[in-house]
Amino acid sequence: MIALLIIVLPFYWKWRNGTEFVLDQQIIIIFSVIVLIMNIPSLLIYLNYYFENKDTSFTLDFNSKQIEITQNGLTKVYTINDVAESNYHLGIYYKNAIDRAGRIPMLVSDFGYWDLKFKNGDRYYLTNILHDFIHDTPFLGKTKYRFRMFTYINKSDSKKAVELKEKREKTRIEKFVEQYESKNEKQLIQILDNSKNYQKEAVEAAKIVLKNKNVG
User: Fold this and answer.
1) Which intervals hold domain PH (predicted)?
2) pTM, rounded to two decimals
3) Residue (of 92, 132, 134) closest to 113 by Cα position
4) Which of 101, 90, 110 is closest to 167 using CA atoms?
């Protein structure tokens, strides 16, 4: 951002004012403070991840379905059958895959970690500063998700994770069904009797709602 301003601003200033732009110390300080403030959350999360994983490494063997984790010089190998819980903690932006709320990404959105708990009680918090794996298809199919604004490692988090089931777009018929559920039988029959005046999806929806009302 600073580099862009340093390159573009002098040309714009000269074109606008006809004089050379002077980059004084005050402007540099203002720009630096703005960038620093914008990056403070990212820096804090990065440090949080670093201190958690500075003595940790891991590898995923997709062929044998094994997880090898080295922590403080001690290496352990686990199979997928040894896993008790597998939870991905992602930024709230990635919840769009569930509810399509249209959230925009932030500087901290791509931080995430894997809360991996084994049946023998071992537990690890594997962050994406070790490997950039957290936004790919999970290694374990039973992995669930937690979404937060700032994904710092919270070892006391008691909220349950959820399955990542992407929300399917409703069909036009389903939308008409929702719209027509408040109509009475007479109104629905009127739609069917005048079907040429309605979209075919609307007519199908009227048939469905009328049938449900008769069954009920």
Assistant:
1) 4-132
2) 0.64
3) 134
4) 101
